[in-house]
Amino acid sequence: MSSQPHQQPAVAVKDKLYKRPFDLIVLVLAHLLLFPLWLLLWTLIPLAIWLQDRGPIFYKQTRIGRGGKVFTIRKFRTMVPDAERMTGAVWATLRDPRITPLGRILRTTALDELPQVLNIWRGEMSIVGPRSERPELHAKFVQQFPSFGQRLAVRPGLTGLAQVKGEYNLPPNEKLVYDTEYIRRMSLWLDIKLITISVWNTVVGRWDRRAAKKDRP
After folding, report:
1. Residue 213 belongs to what H/E stretch?
2. What pLDDT is attached to residue 211?
């Protein structure tokens, strides 16, 4: 697969020097200081997913990252098996009927994203940055909003300004506003702040509360 899918123009890389060392330091400290918690999560979540419907534990997706490079992520599966067999690549909605009861909990706490830590270790992602998109959806959004490709100037992140401030199903043009703001303001202090907020949201399960209010009939 080409590292520049859909022949998109090259984007200047703007990652700052602190990003990669900071990511590695945070990951090492988190695993050393919270090892029992990591062990518990990596044991209970896969077991619960398997017991729910005996389906696959992980869900694999192709994403587009910094400079248009394509890579593969894995997430804990939150939907019924083969959920996209009929629909193809589409965004999930908050009340998507394909989401399992356990999957709804994992999404609310963002624990379904946990396996992407492996992508951070490999340098394909950062802890903080724009949310990575699937290549086909990215190409569609670039056609609608040509400046959407500016998000590829930095590594995609596990969390970020759009993920923290925006709603669950944030439209791509609004996501672009947050992401370009993050790229412009990117700093060590901002990353620490966004990580702290994200951890708090995971603990109290507030990731899609604003979206839930908006999505009510």
Report:
1. helix 209-215
2. 44
Sign of the dihedral through C-alpha 106, 120, 93, 209? positive
| E-assigned strand segments in the chain | 58-64, 70-76, 126-128, 157-159
- Six-digit token string for 120: 């951070």
Q: What is the rounded distance in angstroms from the CA atom of residue 152 to the CA atom of residue 171?
A: 17
Of the CA atoms within 13 Å of residue 172, those in its CB half-sphere come to 20
pTM: 0.81
pLDDT per residue over 52-63, tens digit each? Answer: 989 899 999 999
Q: Which two tokens stand for residue 136?
A: 């086909």
Q: Where does the pLDDT of residue 98 fall: very low under 50, low under 70, confident under 90, or very high at 90 and above? A: confident
Alpha-carbon dihedral angle through residues 138, 140, 142, 143, given to the nearest 10 degrees: 170
Q: Which residues contact 161 (CB under 8 A, 6 or more apart)?
A: 178, 179, 181, 182, 190, 194
Q: How many residues does the chain have?
A: 217
> Would you say residue 91 has pLDDT above 80?
no
- Contacts of 164 by beta carbon, 8 Å cutoff, 6+ apart: 194, 197, 198, 201
Name, in order, each residue with C-beta under 8 angstroms of 178's C-beta and a sequence gap of 6 or more: 160, 161, 162, 165, 166, 170
